[in-house]
Amino acid sequence: MDTYTKTAHLLRAEWLDRIMRVLIVAVASVALSIIFLIFIFTFKEAKDVFFDADTRHEVLPTLFSTTWQPVSDNPKYGIVPLLIGTLKTTLIAMVIAVPIGVLAALYTSCFAPAWLREVIKPAAEVLAGFPSVVIGFFALFVLADVLQALTHAEVRLNALVGGVAISLTAIPIIFTISEDALSAVPKSIQEASYGLGATRWETAFYITLPAAYPGIFAASLLGFGRAIGETLIVLMATGNAPISSWTLTDSVRTLTATIGAEMAEVVFGDPHYSVLFLISTVLFLSAFILNSVAEFYIKARLMKKFKGE
Amino acid sequence: MLSLLHITSDMRTHIFLMSLLFAVFGCAAPDRPITVRGSDTMVALGQKWAEIYMHKFPSQTVQVNGGGSGTGIAALINRTADICQSSRPMKARERKKIQEKFGREVIEIPVAKDGIVIYVHKDNPISKISIPQLCKIYTGQIQNWKELGGEDRRIIVYGRENSSGTYEFFKKEVLKGADFADHVQTLPGTAAVVNAVSKDLYSIGYGGNAYSQGVRILPVSRTDTSQAIEANELSITMGEYPISRNLYFYLAKVPNDGIQHFIDWVLSDEAQAIVAEQGYFPIKKTALQSAGVKTAF
Q: What ipTM, to 2 d.p.?
């Protein structure tokens, strides 16, 4: 009798295991397939640029030019200024956000007293969830004036304003994930460093920080993803002029702002419509490629290095 | 105006059957809200109309949303709006789409007039501007205030996004179809343009007359030598001001009684007086006169 119940019990547990596994796999694959379907959809809407003769004829000759004038008697779909715009704002944002985010994380994890850490960490997490429209407004009304006074820029709404404002959204992400990575470095390593006579600074800079590189790298990557995809802030704060220039204080038009501003109005199936989806595809692919390279190549190399192989 | 909503006998049967259906099934339910979508320029005006209309006729609900003239037309085509507010006439391509989908011509009703005005910073010494000068500024042939008799400073040029009716109107009427220069900064909404111009001494911008606080509005002349004309009710309604346009309601279907009632009210003197209060200009002469007297509201 006893053995019988036990077997039944085990059997039930086994079944439950199986069901749960199927469920989890199902949920995971739903998430994956949604991403996949979004990509398929985006590409499907963009494919006319290459496969529809009329659209191709209208779009391709100007696609790599430096003039973006899609609403015109003679439309020009040059995406070069938009690519430059996105690169410019994203790079400015990263140059500001990575050092600040990482150093703040280093301070919080290695130097700040425990009570302060309990305050900073949740505060940063709240900031990470801050609506970008609010930051956009702040950039438009306050940041633009401050930066114009500092740089004496002729153009008030420019790439620098956009980049700095985007960095405000990227810093909390980079900070909070870097901080997790730094705090996960085993205490024994730090104690060994102290044991050899290293100071707190030396330990933090030469021991803890390098040990957390893979995590910090992942943090920066997520920050980059947020920066490149940011739409509302750049739409509001950069002036949206499609100029091909590398000057930081010129107005820029980014890929995302172009989609955001123009998608609502285009006629369905128009060449302009297809080009906007092509831009989405470009954004999607660049994020995808960047993430893959980071994940499979650089991270593996970093890991190898730290395992001493 | 009613002649625009000409109803054939065939349709009359349809409408009769529809009303019969409504009479049978629809009596307990409240009236379906009238959805109005489209031009950002017109959204404040539309909401004011809706507010007063709903106050006067509490059984009716009118919902007004913005998004741009193009968005409103798309909503009309996708049947998610009853009325599209548009600050530009519908394009041939869009008319064709409606024709294909609904099997009839789109119904076009001018409901107000608007002047596109030119803003400069309130301390800018320039006193007037001509259409050819504006054309040169926005196509990039003039880039310095010096050429207009001002300081030796670069002109910071603001405009609207290419999804707005204002953009297309300006392009057609002022640039005569030419492309805007690359350095023209485009902002979402007339309010954003006004705000940007008010903060920049060396800037110029264009937009609707409805929002014009904190900046100066330049009188505009048709040619370099003709007299510059201020944008005001008389000059715009009479068509003397060089950059004025009609604002429209578009309908894809023959309106039902509720929608027809709303449109009739919008064209009434009472509603046209609201147009004037919102910074736009009435479409009808009679309304113009009564607006001068400032009626009930």
A: 0.80
